[in-house]
Amino acid sequence: MLHDVDPPHTHWQLKSPIHAHYINTLLKYYPQASIIMPHRCLNEVIPSACSLFLSLLSHYFNEDDIPNLKIMLGQMIPKFIDITIDRIFEFNSRESSRKNVFNIQYKDLITDPIGTVHRIYDHFHFLQWSDEFEKAMHLWLMENPQGKQGRHSYSLNEFHLETQMNKQLYKDYEKLFLST
Description:
- This protein is 54% helix and 6% strand.
- It is mainly alpha-helical and 180 residues long.
- The protein starts with a helix and ends with a helix.
- This is Sulfotransferase.
- It comes from Rotaria sordida.
């Protein structure tokens, strides 16, 4: 495992939606892991994932094939997201009282990043908050405003996803994790 190859000095920070597929395995080997699960509106997540895979795969296709690739991604990515949501629901129903899992809304991280990080630190008591840390976050946010590196644009329509976004599964997910 990772700790045998590259042991951390303090801790690891791993970020990938794919971890939701293997959260039980992750916690089997790292039962004390602190897991932050950000949740986002699926009508943003799904076209974003399609766009990511398009950028990864488009180099292997001719320009004429890109429209068909977009259609294919618009069919495949929702199936992947469905599995991800099922795994999150399964885990949440079985382990909802775990203190080492903290759910946040992605929009909170964007609109109030310091407040959201403060809530994370409050939840995981072993993390130490300091004025110096907060000042460093303010500085980083000032020096790195959203959009500094450009904006990534995508849409449901681009990947023919409009009809797929009305699934009950998506409504249940958003009700559980995104309703305030």
